[in-house]
Amino acid sequence: MITAGFDIGTRAFKICLVEDSRLLASACWLADRDLGRSVGRCYKQMLAGLGLRSRQVRKVIATGYGADLVAAAAYELSEPACLARAAYEMDAGVTALIDIGALFIRVVKVDENGFLEDSDVNEPCAAGSGKFLELVADALDVPFEDISAIARRSTEPYTITSTCAVFAESEIISQINAGVASEDILAGALDALTKKVLALLGKAGDIGDRLMLSGGVAKIPALREKLAEALGEDLVQPLVDPQLMPAYGAALLAQGRARRRL
Amino acid sequence: MVVGIDIGSLTAKAVILNHGDVLAAHIMRVRPRPVESAEAVLAEVLNAVGARASDIRACCATGYGRLDIPFATMNMSEISCHARGASWSDASIRTVIDVGGQDCKVICLDGRGLVQDFVMNDKCAAGTGRSLELLAKAIGVELADLGPLSLKSRRPVAITNKCSIFMELEVLQHLYRRTKLKDIAAGINLSVARRVAALTRMLTLKPAVCLTGGVSKNIGVAAGLEKLLEISFKPLPIDPQIMGALGAAVFARESVV
Prior knowledge:
heterodimer; A: Nucleotidyltransferase, domain 5; five-stranded mixed beta sheet; four-stranded mixed beta sheet; B: alpha/beta; Nucleotidyltransferase, domain 5; 2 domains
């Protein structure tokens, strides 16, 4: 049976098509002004690529900030529920998952049966967020995939003093003009992000000892390293692209429910 | 002849005073270094009156770049300069609400234009010009058009977030849902007005109240603030965006007479 999961995030939207628990196809597109239509177009292209008709997809579940834009969805589920499901599918021993998206950082606790136990999300302030890291990388003209390699070269990370992401961007532009090295600024931005994650983890309480890291920002190896170092333990890597976790989880949840219906 | 220069986060302003008259004033976008902005804006006002740098008897600098200007003979804080400028323009002013590019301040002054109390937000971009700029860009509207456009709205959208970047997201959500631009524009202006009003409520407002700084030129924010605070702003006879530079010029003049 084929099901689909849509995750409409703040910066990108992701779609996963799943057959039983196997990932058939996935897509990740940047959100644009015409988001509703782009989501529809992307889905159509995916179906065409697999030679599927839309009615062959038995159930669609949407999650994420813009979940209500998905016309094909049977219903919407929260990101933590989808994340917990995807994490359990990959590693039944995972106790908690840290998902770092563009604006939201989530800590999702998973119980031994793979159900969502509890979740926390950051305050709605962009200081130290993935979006902030993007603003910094843009100001430095560093593409996303190079952030890690460049930040690793830093010997003296620059400590960002602005408490607001918008102001931090101008602070960084003046630091670039003042001659501070790109690697030190990037490493400083990664430090700010790490600090934000740790603050949230502090709020979340007991998160167990097997942690998985996901989300688009988790694709930066240098950030993984900084977090692992701060937590003193290795972080489990998802078996799919870490950015696809909520969409994959949504598609898996669609499987369960659809099956029960039959 | 004396000069006041205000190097803000987004714009640089200069005012030339001569025997108590404003001879020239200029506003321009800042250059990367404060000293470049200061030199450029000074050249503009000197040109406008056909004067040379040697004709200037005193120059007072203010704004965040005020310490980096070698040709300034003195410098004063922005708070003092805004108070002085507003009071010089209209002696009845007792409260100045200044909404600039990167900060927002509310200043209470006495009858002589001296600062009695003030509050300031320079920690968060919400409630400043930067927030307006960011949100105007998100909906593809020129900053200058945001005010007039918002006045046409009868149903402003609600923007509930306090962080500018989260507000941007909310604004985009409205775009996705094809909400009318004028209603989004009105929502944006109100969101800034609400933040400024929250800061303002930390002090007791004494009339007359004036609104200064670049954001005062956005008629939507100004009208929203008047409604939220249940007051009317006293219009100033001089461009409200140059109050800081004007106050600096007044201080420069006092230093030589």
